[in-house]
Design goal:
The chain has three domains: 122 residues; 75 residues, Signal transduction histidine kinase, dimerisation/phosphotransfer (DHp) domain (Helix Hairpins, Orthogonal Bundle); 171 residues, Heat Shock Protein 90, CATH 3.30.565.10. The strands form two sheets. The protein has a six-stranded mixed sheet with strand order 6-7-5-4-2-8. A two-stranded antiparallel sheet has the order 1-3. The two termini are 50 Å apart. 60% of the residues lie in helices and 11% in strands. The protein is α+β, with helices and mostly antiparallel strands. The chain is rod-shaped, with a radius of gyration of 39 Å. A hairpin with a 2-residue loop joins β4 and β5. α4 packs parallel to α7 and α5 packs antiparallel against α7.
C-alpha cells in the first residue's frame, strides 16, 4: 500500500466534492435518503486525510470500504430497480480512492469488490424483473477496471518521479555540503599560509633577542646569587619566562615552517598508545578511565611517526585538561577508537578521541582549528591549529563531531600506506575492546 501526503484540502477533494454536488442537483432532488448519503460522502471525503493520518496502515482500507457501502446504499434509493440506477458512476469514487492508495494488485482487488457490490443488485432484480441489457452492465464494469488501472498507473509514475526528484535533491544537497566544506578548507588553508609566513618572520626576529636576554639573565643570576638574593631570584624569573617565550616561539615556527615528513609504514594503535603514555606521564595524578576500542588486523598507515604522535598527544592532552577543568563530580572517561574507514574513495584508518568533559562551546565549533582560537584562559590557540596542519600534511582529515554524550569528540582520518588499502578492503576485521 502506498502512502500519500496530502494537505488539509487537496485539489482532488475539491473535484470529488463538485462531483457529489452535481449528483445532489440531479433528480430525484427531493429524495431525503439520497441527499443524506451524498452529504455523508462529502463529509467523509473531507475528513479522509485525517483518517489516513491517524490509521496509516488501515485507514485506506476503511476508506474504500465505507465508500463502497455508501455507493451501494445510494443506488438503493435512486431508482425503482437499483441495478438500473443512473447513479452507478458513484462507484468511481471508491475505485479511484483505491487506485490512489494501493498498488496495481490492490487496485484490481478493490475494483473487483466494488464491481461485485454493484452487481449484487442483480440478485433481487432476477426474482422480480426480467433482466435485459447485461452487455451494458458488463461495459460499465469494464470501464471501472479501465479507469482504476489508468489512475493507478498515473499515481505510480508520479510517485516514482517524486522519489527520483527527492533522491536528486538529496544528492545535490550532499554535493553542496561537500563544496561548502571544500571552500571552508580552502579559506582556512589560505589563512594558515599567510599567517605562517608572518609567524615565521616574526618568530625568527624574536628568538635572537630572547637568547640574548636569557644569557644575560643567567649570567646576572650567577654573579649576584650570593650577594643579592633578591636580584638573583628576579633574574631566575626572567630566565624562566624567556624559556616559556622560547617554547611559544618554537610552536610558532612549527606552525609556520613547511613540514618535511619522514613517511614510513606505521601501526596506528602503537602511535596512539605512545601518545597516551606520554600524556599519562605528564599527568600522573589524573583520575581518568581509558576505554579502548581497537579493530584487529589494522592496515599500516604511511606517516611520520613523530608528527603523527604529536597529533594524538595534543588531542589526548586537551581531553585530560578539559576533564580536569570540569572537576570530579562525575567519572572522567577517555574513549579511544581505531578502525578501518573509507573517506572520499580512499581507504585508511579512523581514530576517534572522545572525552567526558564540558565539550566545545557552540560559538567556537566552526573556528576550533583556526589559529588563536581557544576556550582556555591561559591558552594561545595553536594546539589544534598545529594538529590540523599535521593532519593535512599527511593528506588526512580531522573533524569535531557532534557528540550525543557530554564532552568533545574528535575524529581523525589518515590514509593507508600505498599497497595496503586493497589488503584492508579484502579483510573484515573484528573489534576488540580494552579498558
Amino acid at each position: 500500500m502506498f502512502e500519500r501526503k496530502r494537505s488539509p484540502i487537496d485539489w482532488i477533494d475539491i473535484v470529488w466534492l463538485l462531483f457529489i454536488l452535481g449528483l445532489a442537483l440531479l433528480p430525484p432532488i427531493n429524495e431525503v435518503h439520497k441527499q443524506v448519503i451524498l452529504l455523508a460522502f462529502a463529509v467523509f471525503q473531507y475528513f479522509e486525510p485525517s483518517l489516513i493520518a491517524r490509521l496509516p496502515s488501515r485507514g485506506a482500507v476503511y476508506s474504500v470500504l465505507i465508500k463502497i457501502a455508501l455507493a451501494t446504499l445510494l443506488l438503493d434509493h435512486t431508482g425503482e430497480v437499483p441495478i438500473n440506477s443512473g447513479y452507478y458512476p458513484i462507484y468511481y469514487l471508491p475505485i479511484v480512492t483505491a487506485a490512489i492508495y494501493f498498488g496495481p494488485l490492490g487496485t484490481l482487488v478493490w475494483t473487483a469488490i466494488a464491481s461485485l457490490a454493484y452487481c449484487s443488485y442483480l440478485i433481487p432484480a432476477h426474482w422480480e424483473y426480467e433482466i435485459t441489457g447485461l452487455d451494458y452492465l458488463a461495459i460499465r464494469v469494464l470501464f471501472f477496471f479501465l479507469s482504476a488501472m489508468l489512475v493507478n498507473r498515473f499515481v505510480v509514475e508520479n510517485r516514482r518521479q517524486v522519489a527520483r526528484y527527492q533522491a536528486l535533491s538529496e544528492t545535490l544537497e550532499e554535493t553542496n555540503r561537500q563544496l561548502q566544506r571544500a571552500e571552508a578548507e580552502r579559506r582556512r588553508s589560505e589563512r594558515l599560509a599567510a599567517l605562517g609566513q608572518l609567524s615565521a618572520g616574526l618568530a625568527h626576529e624574536i628568538r635572537n633577542p630572547l637568547n640574548v636576554i636569557k644569557g644575560s639573565a643567567d649570567m646576572l643570576a650567577e654573579k649576584v646569587k650570593n650577594s643579592e638574593p633578591l636580584a638573583g631570584e628576579l633574574a631566575g624569573y626572567i630566565s624562566s619566562e624567556v624559556d616559556r617565550l622560547n617554547a611559544l616561539v618554537a610552536r610558532f615556527l612549527d606552525f609556520a615552517r613547511p613540514s618535511h615528513l619522514d613517511l614510513k609504514p606505521q601501526k596506528m594503535d602503537e602511535i596512539v598508545e605512545r601518545a597516551l603514555e606520554s600524556v599519562q606521564a605528564l599527568s600522573p595524578d589524573a583520575e581518568v578511565k581509558v576505554e579502548r576500542h581497537y579493530a584487529q588486523d589494522l592496515p599500516p598507515i604511511s606517516a611520520d611517526a613523530q608528527l603523527c604522535e604529536r597529533i594524538f598527544v595534543n588531542l589526548i592532552q586537551n581531553a585530560y585538561q578539559a576533564m580536569e577543568a570540569a572537576g570530579r563530580e562525575r567519572e572522567n572517561i577517555l574513549r579511544l577508537s581505531i578502525k578501518p574507514e573509507t573517506s572520499n574513495g580512499r581507504r585508511g584508518i579512523g581514530v576517534t578521541v572522545a572525552d567526558s568533559g564540558p565539550g566545545v562551546p557552540p560559538e567556537l565549533r566552526e573556528q576550533i582549528f583556526n589559529p588563536f582560537v581557544t576556550s582556555k584562559s591561559d591558552g594561545v590557540g595553536l594546539g589544534l591549529a598545529l594538529v590540523a596542519k599535521f593532519v593535512d600534511d599527511h593528506r588526512g582529515s580531522i573533524q569535531l563531531e557532534n557528540n550525543p554524550e557530554p564532552g568533545a569528540r574528535f575524529h581523525v582520518f589518515l590514509p593507508a600506506a600505498a599497497g595496503e588499502a586493497e589488503v584492508g578492503a579484502m579483510s573484515q576485521p573484528g573489534v576488540r575492546s580494552r579498558k
